[in-house]
Amino acid sequence: MTAVREGSLHQNPKALHRQVTLIWNEAAQNPELGLKPVTVASFRGPPKRVDLSLLPASFIEDRDSYLSWCAATDPFAVDARPRPLAARTLKLSRDQIHAGVTALESRRASARSPI
């Protein structure tokens, strides 16, 4: 694949690399061929998110308070949830808040940039 990337005229060598690994793994499912599966190529980097340390402490406190309410950590609170959310749902909510902040910051940054 290195030779293809460096010396080929293929328009998208990364997509070709990924497609070849997918085809190889499909063929490797046939035990008669004796092929071992390979790692499917992925050229996506980790998602770029806003660093939470850059956010105001009041925002972090509000987020944590909301997630604590969702987890029903205080069942005797006046506004307590009847049932706590599952741990995976709490993690999803935390990730969605982080993604929302990132999207807002990205939009705000693009509005500031001159075109």
Q: Report the sheet-strand fraction.
A: under 5%
Runs in which pLDDT lies below 50 for 5 or more consecutive residues are none
The number of helices is 4
- Shape descriptor reads elongated
Report, as a whole number of angstroms, the end-to-end distance: 38 Å
Q: How many extended strands? A: 0
* Average pLDDT reading: 87
Q: In the residues, how many domains can be counted?
A: 2
Helix content: 40-55%
C-alpha-based Rg, rounded: 23 Å
**Series of H and E elements:** HHHH
Biggest sheet features: none
Structural class: mainly alpha
Mind explaining what this structure looks like?
The protein is mainly α. The protein has 2 domains: 2-33; 52-112, no CATH class. Helices cover 54% and strands 0% of the residues. The longest helix is centred in the C-terminal third of the chain and has 26 residues, at 87-112. The protein is elongated and about 65 Å long.
